[in-house]
Amino acid sequence: MAQVITRTHAPLDVRSRAIRTWKVIENLFWYIVLIGVAIVAAFPFIWVLAMSFKGPADPVVSVPPQFIPQHPTFENYVRVWKLLPMASFFMNSIVATASNVILNVTVAALAAYPFAKMKFPGRDAIFYFLLATLIVPMALAAIPSFILAVKVFHYRDQLISLVLPNMVSVFNIFLLRQAFKAVPNDLIDAAKMDGAGEFRIWWSVLVPIVRPSLAAAAINQFVFMWNEFFWAQLMLPTMTNRTLPVGLLALQSGFVSDSRGMAAGVVITVVPIIIFFALLQRQFTQGLSGAVKG
Amino acid sequence: MTKRLSLTPYLFLTPALLGIAVFVLYPMAAVVYYSFTDYNIITPPTWVGLKNYEHLFRDTVFVKALSHSLIYLLVTPILIVLSILLAIIVNRPLRGIHFFRALYYLPVVSGTVAVGLAWSLVLNTNGLLNALLQTLGMIKEPVQWLADPSLTLMFCMMLTVWTGVGFYMMIFLAGLQNIPEELYDAAMIDGCNNLQKHWYISVPGLRPQITFVAVISSLAALNVFSEPFILFGPNGGILDSGTTVVLYLWRVAFRLNHAGYASAVAMGLLVITLGFSILQIRLIERGTEAN
Asked: Which chain A residues have a beta carbon less than 8 Å from that of B24?
């Protein structure tokens, strides 16, 4: 420290300028890396976007590949929209995802409270048992769950068949338990003195405090449900009842030789979710932070 | 806290436990039972004893699917390395870094189906890959990439990595931001260069996240279904080159209507998953002891 102070000003100034130029070069290098990765991450989408606007006179592929269509058209979008019930796909996805997220986060928040703040016989046993179910492969439950859906609940081909089986997320219970644990016990005790019951405490004290973690849990579940495919394609055979991922699959069979139409379908599906994501970007990307702490 | 046994905690747990009971525990019990039966979902199951299991070990497609699912575990180390590298890059306090973070996360929110269809337009015989390679003069004629059985699994794994890396990057990024800055300063004083400081500080500091990602990504790898289904269809490509255990289970149960035999396939998957999880927990425990 003392050494630095005794130095004269002039060389320090020269050095700081050198440091600044070095900094600029370094930042430039990192931006090149960032943009390079971005191109790799985005290039199938860029190709699809280009393809979706290609007119019948534009070749699907040429050497070198053509990214900007010579005869741009919306015709591909119109064709896909007419041939597939895209609006129904969207509505179904929204309804199924929204109701599942609400149910799932409520169930998780209810279960997380006793695990975080109460002492009762069997608490740890039940908790570890729940964690153990994380290992169970989802495909294992598929056959009996399918039979339940057809023979007991009679909800195959209805959206509720996606909502109910995914009502519990052990991962979200775990996440919210961590959040509830961080709430000071004094707050809970004070509410008890005021005569609040446990449910009241949960709803009026804990839930408002852990709102960021609830958002994180909701977003985890949203991403999972919005893209859920394995179970949805088993449950939703009728075209107009399908969610987006299952509906999109019809593109593959119906547009086998129509790359332009298929591309338009992919763009129609992806753009709304990208807009939604852009609006809630912070919540999406920060939601995960709370999940895994050392 | 009152001394007498209160029902309250159990009431809070009821919805979750009910859900687990109906959609996890009952199916587990049922699948064990079905695996000893001949069952086509329409007529009631008939008990056949160990017949399904005897068949399982002689079923070459099952063995093939199993080996594919195990090969698929290679995505775990690839995902860990790539997403740690990306997390370190996007952890720099640069202007606009949030934009890049969001961009890298985009394949995650777009979903495997949309991303898979996008990739199939790239990998098609008349897709972008052939056009690029022809432009560069690396190939003369378009190659039928998706029809080459030796590449099937690799393309599926590439799709998994491509859609997964942004998700795991966010987990590692959160971990990096929990590592105190002083540790890096101390490392620099001790003479570490930029690369060494990440090797000696970041990687050990990310141990909990590495464990977490290793566990969830390998469980996902053992359960892979969407990738081969979307790129190659329900038959898993030519000569079952892309058939994984879950894809095979799906086909046997819901295409061929052999729910009994498919349940035995499911039991096989459960045994592999359990064995693998125990192995992994052992390795992790040994790792923490060594620390």
From this structure: 133, 136, 141, 168
